Amino acid sequence: MAFRTRLTDLCGIRHPIIQGGMQNVGYAQLAAAVSNAGGLGLITALTFPTAEALADEIARCKALTSAPFGVNISVFPTMRPPDYAAIVDVIAQAGISVVETAGTPAVREVWDMLFAKGIRVIHKCTSVRHAVSSERYGVHAISIDGFECAGHPGEDDVPGLVLIPAAVDQLSIPVIASGGIADGRGLVAALSLGADGVNMGTRFCATREAPIHDRVKQAYIDGDERDTTLLFRPFRNSARVGRNSVAQEALRRIEQPGSTFADVAELVSGQRGKELLASGDLDSGIYWASMAQGLIHDLPSCDELITRIMAEASEIVTERLTGMMTAGD
């Protein structure tokens, strides 16, 4: 059984599954593997130092797949903002038709540039109110991040079981469920709640094509749903990461009265996180991890993973759920 949804139609993909845009993970080899398996792979634009380097990575991805893939662009405060106009030009020149965005309201300037190029935008939100505002501005789909997710879950602490249908009730554009999804059960649950597909990040980190060290992949397999740490709550910039000694020390410092981000900046730097993914030294920095790691027990290829998810979803719908139905009296 295949599932045709508004997401598959929007992106021209076989299966309603998107690989999350992940810093220092969303390279061509992973994006192409996901797209070749029928999902939508994403290259993460800000992983690359320049627009030219992003163009080279897009070219590498095109050499690895003829299937559609997209690019992720995140917009967050920084001392040296990227050249978003150059990034958008590279994406448009490469013929990329779908971009995932995330970040602060300043992202609207990037949307305007993307809309002008005829590029479809999937925007990631952590609340219904922001999703509604984004739809009004013109984005084409919403990826709604539940509290279970890796990265930044927002400050409302609403899990997917409530957040997904709440978003669906308020939106007319496609909704993609994100956060805590790792298998066919999660896909069927999301579709049942009204979503048009799912976005998975942590689950795709634990695949053979993910360009990170095997020790990091094993950490996702070994960890359970409790093995994450929520950082930066007092700064209203909550972030869910894998539980390790660095995350625990950062949490200890943050919980001290009067703490500021400067107290933990050297522990949680992006450079340290990038080096951790490459070296596999799990106590050298922080790394993103969602509660979905409690559902991860192996290291398949992306093709094996997506094939299995779709088979599980089909079995749940055609056998388990159908078998529960009884004729009315």
TrEMBL record:
GO terms for molecular function: nitronate monooxygenase activity. Gene3D superfamilies: Aldolase class I. Pfam families: NMO. Keywords: Flavoprotein, FMN, Monooxygenase, Oxidoreductase. InterPro entries: Aldolase_TIM, NMO. This is Nitronate monooxygenase. It comes from Sphingobium xenophagum.
